[in-house]
Every structure is written in C-alpha cells, then in structure tokens.
Amino acid sequence: VKRACCDFLNSQLDPSNCLGIRDFAETHNCLDLMQAAELFSQKHFAEVVQQEEFMLLSQSEVEKLIKCDEIQ
Q: Which CATH code is given to the segment(s) 2-66?
C-alpha cells in the first residue's frame, strides 16, 4: 500500500506541490519519492519559487535548496 501511495504521489508531482510531497515523503520514509520530489524541484526551480509552498519554507530549507548544484 505504501509503495502504491508513493507511486501515485510521484505521478502527481507539480511545481505547486513538489516541496510538500518532499516533506511528506521524508516524514513517511519514502526515500524514492523524496529523491524524485527533490529532483523535480531542482529541474523546475524557476516555477517552484513562484509557488506558495516555496514562500512557506524556512530559511535553512531555502538555503539547502539553492545550494544544490542541480538547480536549473
């Protein structure tokens, strides 16, 4: 059941929800989903920063995200 839920959330990744899905995945120890959400947020960074979820990040979370070499 957990795998099916993670697969479903992975298929729903979007600039408006990828940060929340990443947090959810981390909380529930869904490492593949967490990595997929992180990669998605890096590839779609310009769109992600325009979303409400980005504005809700803490300073340390923003710093971690922008320090990534994979940001596009």
A: 1.25.40
